[in-house]
Amino acid sequence: QVQLVESGGGLVQAGGSLRLSCAASGRSISSYAMGWFRQAPGKEREFVAAISWSGGDTYYADSVKGRFTISRGNYKNTVYLQMNSLKPEDTAVYYCAVKTSGTRYDYWGQGTQVTVSS
User: Fold this and answer.
1) Which of 17, 34, 102, 115, CA to CA, is 20 to 30 A from 93?
2) Which of 72, 74, 80, 41 is nearest to 56 (CA)?
């Protein structure tokens, strides 16, 4: 079992920055790929960013490329999402997830709200 807890969300003005954290417990996630997803009101959950187990490979949705950066902590049991140049359309609940088996993200956090005002 893996427990994931996101933090760092909040209210920010357009153009501002936030850094989200995702802390894992119960089991080390250092050997697994991690991802960030988001869900805006009335919309489906969408992929935001992902990082390989080593941290050497990162992937981003086109909508956040160049503005968001995903990274792993030194001991790799924490994953971060640095969000710069935030836009109102980035407003959503942000979730982190881990892929412990196969190709499916199988453990999810409870989410953290990000609200960007115009």
Assistant:
1) 102
2) 72
